[in-house]
Predict the structure.
Amino acid sequence: MNNKDLIHLIRAQKPALPDALDARICDRLARLTKEEQAMKKRVKFHTVLIAAVVFVLLAGTAFALGRSNLMEYFSRGNLKPLDGAEKLIQTDFGEAVRQEDVIFQVEEAIFDGKTAVVQMLISPADPENVFLLHQGIQDTPEDVYEVSYNEDEYGGEYRTVTGRKDGKKIIAYSIALKMANENEQYVFKSSSLDGEELSDGSVRVWMEGRVISGAPDKMDVMIRSTYAPLEKMNDIENRFVFEKRITLESGREAAYTAFEIAENNMDARVEVLSAAVQMHALRGEMTVEYIYEEDRKSEPMGVTFKMYAGDKEIAVGGGEQTLLEIFADGRKRYQAVFEIEAFADFPEIITLEAKVVGQPRTLGQAALVASKSINAAENNVQTDIPGLYFAPEGSWSGACVTLLEGEIYSGRKIVLSYSYKGDRMKHLDVRFIAPDGTSVGEVETQMTVVKENGYTMTAMLTGSGWPTSMTVEFVLNGQVVDSFEALLYPMEK
Amino acid sequence: MSTENRKRLFVKAVHAKKAGMYRVALVILKSSADAEDACADAIEITLRHLDSIRDDGAINAYLMRCTVNACHAILKKRRKEVPQEDFEAILPPVFMDSPVWMYLSGLDEKYSVPIAMKFSENMTTKEIAEILRLTQGTVSTRISRGLKLLKDQMER
């Protein structure tokens, strides 16, 4: 018997699912619902979540959420935007465009300076005979789709979709939102894609992205879709491409709040270094920097954080963690960035709770107090870069360096984000020079985005007792290529 | 991503993955009732921690990972109550219509699980490596060796 025969037998003799499996799952989830109702620990939304999941599993069908516009998209989530955010919706993106078998229409878009969502309708020109299939779809049941098995490197087989049993021609497509121009003074990245199939064969998609450095009032993004008949999707030369560039405008200043640790009751293995909140109209963003001593055996997925204002949990969405540093003793420094619900006035006192990912276990709490809360306009701060805490005097742009953002965290750290236009293999050093000519503090630099002609980086100055004005120098091969005079602010309120 | 969207993804993932989760659990536990329990445990844990799963594309992998963990927890509990050899002696046959799966479940778990994931559930080597916390090379090696051992068992 060869491998091919053996693998065929493994597939052909797959054990059948017992009838009791669905019932066992639903019983467990129903018990969860009762426990939560009895304990009243979660808000009503989460109870509905579990009950709704049980219902859907029993019914055997997927959700079909009837969204009709962008605010519906946001309102169904737990991260509610601010009242009045709908004023930021833009709708004037021109007529629908037909290319070959597909019609594209940008319906709505919204941008708050940080989060951008574009809503688009993609329709087959001939819905009776054409079906649109997103390339990322994994659920392709064999009672709906024709599939084939092909040989792989082990002499076994892998599965591919080759058509539909109803005979409709499949147009496979992908779609993404990206920066229109890589050389902008901000960096925008796509973060998620969601879609809904409509009864007429169209698909409404919502493409979401976030600005990860810089603070643009206006941003050009590109919507790009690649599509082709299913059998030609791997033929790069014969795929179709739809592109549309749109300009998104935000209309609201961000509010920034940095926090200091007032009381620390966390496990000794978790040390919160800093926390800050940046608040926009659609979502807020919490950044927590912390040191964590791992326990790979009992905490294989590490830790995350929950936030509370009094007894009320602050709703948290997606996020990411970045490893910043590994110490000699094995401890690691991370930066965790989370989306949070929008607040008109973010609480000045919050509780941060460290929690083991994938387990109910927590590792203690810390009470945080706002150390500064600045709205640039309210404080008459004059700057060309909104929200900057550590700023050049007046406006500044260098020969090859562009300053994107500068912030002070908890009075212990200044972080500058900047882009460098030049040889991406050459590493810029950053120095902070006091008026007396001496170097200030310790500086660490980290590359965040590498581009074709340069990169963006962050430089972090740690320490304390900084002079209120400093010269920031960008050094390449021992030569100062750019520099600016900076003021340390905000001053006391 | 909004919680509603994530909820919908979770439901789709459960529908898509429950068969695979059950079969992997069956290969490890060799008991249909325990495999059902492991699946229910894995789905409960994933649902409880849905908000912690940052990457939407990771929900499928999270479900499978939790299934393997749930199986290990059941095995640990079993060993405390009944010696493994006694337990296997009293297990009802679960692969009556699937002789090759009977041999597969007789292999060490480090071979049987990647083989089940690869050829029964059509998972890629990369996906298997992420779920089992192995390198892709190790996964490939274990699959190759496992297939050889399986063939040797069946041809005796």
Chain B has two domains: 1-93, 95-156.
